[in-house]
Specification:
Length: 436
């Protein structure tokens, strides 16, 4: 990458196939990087040193003590508190759970219900009695319903099926089902739909009330998944269309493409993780499979190479730490750990990024990183910005900082980045391309 013409990475999506290079272990010198000042306990990092050998499973072992080694494990267990709508609002602008987590900033991730965008799907969960899908209300984002998932055959809609489990092998969707048993006959064999076979099924979501009271419309949906050809950057992609059923408006005859406002029209899945639609806090749950638009943080971070699993497919705490940090960095949620859940960016904004473990991001030389250091926007962790330089913020739009003096922004107690050293709380740096 030449700094004279930086290759900025869009916060919404990148089409560069770079993650294999960026993940190379030959870049192990990232482990002990100090670009500007010397962090305590790691003073030798500023010296010119040859490339380090493969450090093995313990990626932190390359740094001889000091705060640059390892991660804060507790940040993988501590969820961000459920929002109580503090200053800044739970959901400024009425965009549902679309503040960059599940779809692009300013986009929409919600199904239409009786003419209005309303129910926002998030996570499939397997329970002892069947599969449910979490649906967040657009106009009341603290309200999350769980609706039952059943199904039928595409070729024979009268043939109902029991949906036994919905899972993903990392990002590859798999639906386990069997035909509805007939009284007096043997129990049908279980079947699995994945890849091209997904088109055999139509999933049905149980009815949900669009409000309160007896007159509230009851709305349900049919869903169809189609697997996209190929796998880009290790991420499987799908097209989802849905059809509305209402006791007021009747059954829709139109199949509506989900994520159509993003332009990409595709979704992907995340295995074993439940992502909060307001805070991007992640909870481990082996029974959960989260779903997001291609340009939302969940899918974009996977696409950038920030997967919670390693090249062998094994789950890795260090990689998961970086993935969770990326969820906040991509959407510029600087202060989410301080109770402000807002995204401070807009679609199409370009950034440059690098991480301690070289697990994803832009491939930069040490010299290029040193030149970028004065322009650092923030150092990121799972709870937002660990440090933040307001003068380098990626967007200065007044509507993102309403009523604030541009020279005296409220940073909610997050201090400036006085060093370009990674810390146990922060493992990703970002630099806005516009600052170069």
């Amino acid at each position: 990458m030449a700094l004279a013409k930086p290759t900025g990475m869009e916060t919404t999506k990148t089409h560069r196939v770079e993650t294999g290079e960026a993940r190379g272990r030959g870049a192990a010198w990232f482990i002990c990087l100090a670009l500007v000042t010397v962090a305590s306990g790691c003073g030798g990092c500023l010296k010119q040193v040859p490339d380090l050998p493969d450090p093995g499973p313990d990626l932190g072992s390359g740094c001889p003590g000091g705060p640059n080694c390892g991660i804060v494990q507790s940040l993988l267990e501590e969820e961000i508190d459920d929002p109580k709508c503090p200053p800044g609002g739970c959901d400024p602008g009425g965009s549902g759970n679309a503040k960059g987590i599940y779809t692009a900033e300013g986009g929409n991730y919600c199904f239409i219900a009786v003419g209005d965008k309303f129910f926002c799907p998030e996570t499939f969960t397997n329970t002892p009695t069947g599969v449910v899908l979490a649906m967040r209300h657009l106009d009341s984002p603290l309200t999350v319903l769980q609706t039952a998932v059943t199904g039928k055959l595409e070729a024979n809609p009268n043939q109902l099926v029991d949906v036994l489990a919905i899972t993903s092998d990392r990002t590859e969707l798999s639906i386990r089902y069997r035909l509805k048993p007939v009284l007096g006959k043997p129990l049908p064999a279980e079947q699995v739909a994945k890849g091209e076979d997904l088109t055999k099924l139509i999933l049905h979501l149980g009815t949900m009330a669009k409000g309160s009271g007896d007159a509230s419309p009851l709305v349900g949906y049919d869903l169809k998944f189609v697997k996209e050809e190929g796998v880009k950057n290790g991420v499987h992609r799908y097209k989802l269309t849905y059809q509305e059923h209402s006791n007021i408006a009747g059954d829709s005859l139109v199949w509506i493409p989900h994520c159509k406002e993003d332009g990409a029209n595709t979704i992907s899945f995340l295995q074993g993780r439940r992502v909060n639609g307001l805070t991007a806090s992640v909870k481990r749950d082996d029974n959960a499979t989260s779903m997001g638009c291609e340009k939302g943080s969940i899918v974009t971070c996977l696409d950038w190479g920030y997967t919670p699993w390693n090249d062998s497919g094994g789950w890795d705490d260090q990689r998961e730490f970086v993935f969770r940090s990326c969820l906040q960095a991509k959407r510029a949620a600087y202060f989410v750990g301080k109770g402000n859940y807002q995204s401070y960016t807009k679609p199409g904004t370009k950034i440059i990024k690098w991480d301690q473990y070289a697990s994803g991001g832009d491939k930069l030389t040490k010299e290029e990183q040193a030149k970028l250091a004065p322009h650092i926007e923030a150092l990121w962790g799972p709870h937002g910005a660990v440090c933040f330089n307001p003068q380098n913020r990626r967007r200065e739009d007044p509507d993102l900082w309403p009523g604030q003096d541009p020279k005296k922004l409220d940073t909610y107690g997050v201090g400036p980045c006085t060093s370009a050293d990674f810390t146990p709380e922060g493992k990703i740096f970002t630099v806005p391309s516009s600052k170069l």
